[in-house]
Write a structure and sequence with these properties.
It is built from 9 helices and 7 strands. It is α/β, with parallel strands linked by helices and 243 residues long. The protein has a 7-stranded parallel sheet with strand order 3-2-1-4-5-6-7, with helices on both faces. Strand 4, helix 4 and strand 5 form a beta-alpha-beta unit. The longest helix has 26 residues.
């Protein structure tokens, strides 16, 4: 059940970058993509000589997703893990969104994971190969967000996880991680001060949630230790918003 070759989207920073390093430390081959070209270059330099493949890709673009997956399958036909980590949070009320930005947020957070999961499953299922998908949602998808669009798309990620767990059974396990306020990320930098304070006030555990801690949960869901889990939501939120 443990995967050996893993796709991680959004690997240039935050949870994605932490997860890339962790998986490489575990002896995995990692293929990652991001829209941050400089971040990808520094990631590749950091892990020079290790089995890491980087791609400049916009997961909100269907064409980019297809091009990326074509390259992955050609170079790594043994791929058996997918982490849909790339996300976009703007931290603004819904009335401030124009239609173009709405489409981009939905494309990055929902359409990208749909397209990539479909291609991944199309590669594994005909051969009855085992694999695992981990999606990244948010507490915002469970309890709402001051950014209504972000809350909406992250609720969609949870729904996609549960549905694809049924669609891809018994060969591909599909689970979702729901983090709380992760510090040292682009998203944390955009959260309004009053919401930041509210998150911290609600947390039952002390200490900050670091990207590395969320990466630990993702790696667990890719491993044999989670062999009985599919369609599950695991929270990495310090007990924020008990529910």
């Amino acid at each position: 059940m443990s995967v050996g070759t893993v796709i991680v989207t959004g690997g240039a920073g935050g949870v994605g970058r932490a997860l890339v390093g962790l998986l490489l430390d575990q002896g995995k081959t990692v293929i990652t993509c991001d829209i941050d070209e400089s971040g990808l270059k520094s990631l590749a330099e950091e892990h020079r000589g290790r089995p890491l493949d980087t791609h400049l890709t916009d997961v909100s673009s269907h064409e980019d997703c297809d091009t990326f997956m074509d390259a992955v399958i050609a170079a790594h036909p043994e791929v058996d893990g997918l982490v849909n980590n790339a996300g976009l949070y703007l931290g603004q009320p819904v009335w401030e969104y124009d239609d173009e930005t709405i489409d981009r947020v939905i494309g990055t957070n929902i359409k990208g994971p749909v397209w990539l999961s479909r291609r991944f499953a199309d590669h594994l299922l005909p051969a009855e190969r085992r694999g695992a998908i981990v999606n990244l949602a948010s507490v915002a998808g469970e309890v709402g967000s001051s950014d209504a669009l972000y809350g909406t798309v992250k609720a969609g990620v949870i729904g996609l996880t549960k549905s694809n767990a049924m669609n891809f059974a018994p060969y591909i396990r599909v689970n979702v991680v729901s983090p709380g306020l992760i510090v040292r990320t682009a998203i944390a930098d955009r959260i309004p001060d009053y919401r930041y304070a509210e998150y911290k006030r609600q947390e039952l555990l002390d200490g900050d949630i670091l990207p590395e801690y969320v990466a630990d949960v993702c790696a667990y869901l890719l491993s044999d230790r989670s062999r009985t889990l599919t369609g599950a939501l695991l929270r990495a939120d310090n007990g924020c918003y008990p529910r």
